[in-house]
Structure formats: structure tokens, C-alpha cells
């Protein structure tokens, strides 16, 4: 299990890699480009090579996140075009950086209905992946179910992946906060969640976990991250993920609210402690 956090890439990729090590992270996540804009990005090749080498030498795993404002299910042709172009670029950047996966949010049907939105999402994924042959997988993240978001349940995500022409290029990222907010799990139903992950084959394609507590209650369908142990999910429920054999070996990445990145060093230490406590129970 590789514990880490989201890190700013504002000062360049190789700096972010070094930052991960300073914070004590074995895994980290960066945005491939500005999360609220879709401007094309040029890769600084020497910087990328430097970063990749550093990560290899230090055994650190990278996950990337694509910008928020794409919509895989949009009925609007202009946003659709931008979404396809942008995510293709994100995959290329992520692959160049040696990331294990590039996280993408599931589509929003924006009033067109779940069925139409899902169909559109599958078509868009096919378009994005048709000529992609990198090692980095496109990771579908479960959503909190805010507004018209699709992809709340493990079953839906597995169905979407399998309905595409390229399931082998698609993996999953499970966000603990989103799952809780969507009513997919809580402390008492953790075992059922793991069982569903196993039965549906989700677990074989699970590449990363976003590790967050939630500011809002179970099934509230709102995406509000909180620091581990400070929210509605609670430390004992979240610790189950850290202690579960099924998730051993996966990058576990904090996306909890911080004012300064340094705070993550302490939170990562806290996770290591939380994981260890099982031996004393
Ligand atoms: Zn997330
Ligand atoms: Zn979120």
C-alpha cells in the first residue's frame, strides 16, 4: 500500500516529484493541467524525464487527475469535442510522466436521462481511446451523485467499462468520500462493498483509491472532502480500507482540504499509524 496525497504541479513536474518525497508520500497525484481550464499544454520533456527518473529511483507511484470541466456525457457538440481532445491530451501527458492512471470523472447527463447519458459516455470513451496505446489507464472515478452525475455504484461503473470497445484501457479509482456520499458504503457496510467489488470484477481493474473523509452525511449526494477522522465517515471506518488485504499494493491518495501542502506530511503519518493499529487490537 502506497500512501500519499495530491500535490501542486504549479512549479513543474520534477519539483512535484521531489515534493512527494519530502512529504513522506509513496504515491501522489497531480493535475495534468489547470483543473478549471482546458488550455492545451506543452510537455517540458527534460523536466518530465527528470521526474520520471526520480520516481523510479525512489519507488514512488504517480496518479494524475484530468480537469473537472469536461463532461463525457455532454449533449453539446462543442463541449464534446473539447472533452475528447482534452482527455486524449491528458492521457498522453500522464503516460509521459509514467503515471499508472489518469482519473476522469464520469459524465453528467444534464437532464437527458441516465440511459442517454450513459450511452453518450460510452461513445465518448470509445472516441478517446480508439487510437491510444499507452500503459497508463484511464480511471473512471465513482461520483457522489451530485446533480446529474453518473457512475455512483460499483455495478454501473463495471457495466460502463465493459460496454466500451476498450475495457482493457480502462481502470477504476474509488473515492471513499464520493462512495459514502452516494450511499455506496459506510462503516457497517464496508464488507458488502468489498464483496460487490469482488463479485463484479471491479477489484481487478481498481488502480487507485482517493482517500477522503466527508463533510456531509451518508447518502447526501454532495461532494465535500474532509480531513481523515474529522468528518462524517470517521477514522475507524476509513481505517478498514487501510487494513484490507484487497487494497494492499494500491496507491492511496489524500485529496483532503489543506491550507498548506505541508499539512499532508502529518496526515500521511497519521494514515501509517491508523494502518498499524490493527496489530494492537
Ligand atoms: Zn477524488
Ligand atoms: Zn470529490
Automatic annotation (TrEMBL):
Which residues make up the binding site for Zn(2+) 1? 65, 105, 141
Q: How is the cofactor bound?
A: Binds 3 Zn(2+) ions.
Does the keyword Metal-binding belong to this entry? yes
**What is an annotated GO biological process for this record, any one?**
base-excision repair
Among the Pfam families in the record, one is AP_endonuc_2
Q: Which organism is it from?
A: Melghirimyces algeriensis
Upper lineage? Bacteria, Bacillati, Bacillota, Bacilli, Bacillales
Q: Where does Zn(2+) 2 bind?
A: 141, 175, 210, 255
Q: Describe the location of the Xylose isomerase-like TIM barrel domain by residue ranges.
A: 18-273
Described by its record, this protein's role is as follows: Endonuclease IV plays a role in DNA repair. It cleaves phosphodiester bonds at apurinic or apyrimidinic (AP) sites, generating a 3'-hydroxyl group and a 5'-terminal sugar phosphate.
- Keywords, ordered alphabetically: DNA damage, DNA repair, Endonuclease, Hydrolase, Metal-binding, Nuclease, Zinc
What's the protein called, per UniProt?
Probable endonuclease 4
Cofactor(s) it depends on: Zn(2+)
Amino acid at each position: 500500500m502506497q500512501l500519499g496525497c495530491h500535490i501542486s504541479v504549479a512549479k513543474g513536474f520534477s519539483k512535484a516529484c521531489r515534493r512527494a518525497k519530502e512529504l513522506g508520500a509513496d504515491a501522489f497525484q497531480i493535475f495534468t493541467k489547470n483543473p478549471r481550464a482546458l488550455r492545451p499544454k506543452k510537455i517540458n520533456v527534460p523536466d518530465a524525464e527528470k521526474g520520471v527518473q526520480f520516481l523510479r529511483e525512489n519507488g514512488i507511484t504517480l496518479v494524475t487527475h484530468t480537469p473537472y470541466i469536461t463532461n463525457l456525457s455532454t449533449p453539446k457538440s462543442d463541449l464534446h469535442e473539447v472533452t475528447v481532445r482534452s482527455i486524449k491530451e491528458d492521457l498522453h501527458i500522464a503516460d509521459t510522466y509514467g503515471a499508472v492512471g489518469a482519473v476522469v470523472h464520469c459524465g453528467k447527463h444534464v437532464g437527458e436521462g441516465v440511459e442517454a447519458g450513459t450511452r453518450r459516455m460510452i461513445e465518448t470513451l470509445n472516441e478517446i481511446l480508439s487510437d491510444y496505446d499507452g500503459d497508463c489507464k484511464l480511471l473512471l472515478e465513482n461520483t457522489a451523485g451530485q446533480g446529474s452525475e453518473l457512475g455512483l455504484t460499483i455495478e454501473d461503473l463495471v457495466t460502463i467499462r465493459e460496454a466500451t470497445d476498450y475495457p482493457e484501457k480502462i481502470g477504476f479509482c474509488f473515492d471513499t468520500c464520493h462512495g459514502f456520499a452516494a450511499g455506496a458504503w459506510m462503516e457497517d457496510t464496508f464488507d458488502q462493498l468489498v464483496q460487490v467489488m469482488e463479485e463484479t470484477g471491479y477489484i481487478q481493474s481498481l488502480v487507485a483509491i482517493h482517500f477522503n473523509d466527508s463533510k456531509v452525511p451518508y447518502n447526501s449526494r454532495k461532494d465535500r472532502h474532509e480531513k481523515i477522522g474529522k468528518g462524517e465517515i470517521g477514522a475507524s471506518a476509513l481505517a478498514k480500507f487501510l487494513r484490507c488485504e484487497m487494497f494492499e499494493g494500491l496507491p492511496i491518495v489524500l485529496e483532503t482540504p489543506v491550507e498548506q501542502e505541508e499539512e499532508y506530511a502529518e496526515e500521511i503519518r497519521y494514515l501509517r499509524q491508523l494502518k498499524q493499529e490493527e496489530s494492537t487490537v
